[in-house]
Amino acid sequence: MEFFHHAKAVRLKNSHGKYLTAEEDEESVTQGRSGSSKAAKWTVEFVENSDDIIRLKSCYGKYLTASNQPFLLGMTGRKVLQTLPKRLDSSVEWEPVKERGAVKLKTRYGQYLRANGGLPPWRNSVTHDTEWVLWEVHVVEIVVAQSPTGKTPPPPPVMVKEDSFSSAQLPTRKTPPPTLPQPPPPVMVKEDSFSSAQSTSPARSQSSHSSSFSRQESIDSLVSSPPKGGSSRRVSPPKGSNGRIIYFHIANEDGKYDEGFEELSITFKGNGLNELKSKLEVELGIYGITLCARSPLNNGKLYPLRLQLPPNNVDMHVVVVPPSSQEGEDSE
C-alpha cells in the first residue's frame, strides 16, 4: 500500500473528522479532535516477509490490537485496544485496503477498524466489525533512505598540490654533503646593454605579462593564495552546492491540508521542477503527484508550479497533491 511504504509515522483521520487516539491509560483506543497531539501519532511497522501487512504502535509503545472482547453484549463489534503481547500474533496485524483516496484497515479475520458515532457509549468508541469506515492517512514522518552500509559516506578528500620548494623541505636520509665545484667568475655586464634591454619592445612585454596574468587569474579562481613557502590548496565549494531544503505538506483527497501539522522536509540538489517531483514520488511512494504553492494574494489558495525552481538554492515551501485529490485533478 503506497500510503505506508515510505511512512515512518502516520495519523489516521476518519469520516467524523476525528483522529485515532491512544488513551493515557495505555489500554483504550478512542477518537479525538486533536490531530497534533502525540497520542494521535502511530508508528508504522511492516510485518516480516510482507509488503501489505502492517502493525501500528502507539506513543506508549503498544500495538493497535483487534481483541476478542465484545464491546457490548449482544452486539457484533469487538474492542480495539493497545496491547504489548509477548509474541506478536495476527491480532496486531492490519491490511490497508485502498478506497477512494483513503484506506480501510482489515484484520487477518476479515473484519475492519471502525470509528463509531452516535450517543454514548458508542460515541468516540473504536471497534472492529464487518462494517467499515474510511481512514485518511496523514504521513507525519518518512523513512530516510540510507547508504547500503547504513553510514554517511565520508567527504571527498581535499586536493593538495605541493610545489617543488615544499617538497624539497621533506626529511631525507642523512648523506654526506657532495663536493661542489668552484663557482664561476662573475659576469661583467655593460651598463648600455642593460639599458637597451630595458627599452626593448614595451608593448610586447606588456602583452606577455597580460596573457600570463590571465592564466594566473583563472588558476587563482580555483586555488587560494598559498602561504609563503607553503603549498596550494583547493578552496572549499560554496555552501549552495549542498542543495536546498524543500519543506512540504501532503494534501488529502479534497486538496486540503492541516497547517497545524509540522512540515516534512528533504534535501534537494538541482533546479528542475520535474526532477524534484520525481524525487518526492520516490520518497513518498506516491506517483502522479502535483507540486503546488500557496498564493499570497488569494487567501493561500493552491496553484500548481510550472516554472523552474528559484536560483541560488533558496529553501522552498510546497504542497504535495496526490493524484486522487480533487485539487490535483483540477490543476492538471
UniProtKB/TrEMBL annotation:
Domain of life assignment: Eukaryota
Biased composition (Low complexity): 194-216
CDD domains xrefs: beta-trefoil_FSCN_ACP-like
Pfam families: DUF569, Ubiq_DUF_assoc
Composition skew (Pro residues), residue ranges: 174-187
Region (Disordered): 147-242
Gene3D superfamilies tied to this protein: 2.80.10.50
Organism: Erythranthe guttata
Residue ranges constituting the DUF569 domain according to the UniProt record: 1-131, 243-321
Name of this chain's protein: Uncharacterized protein
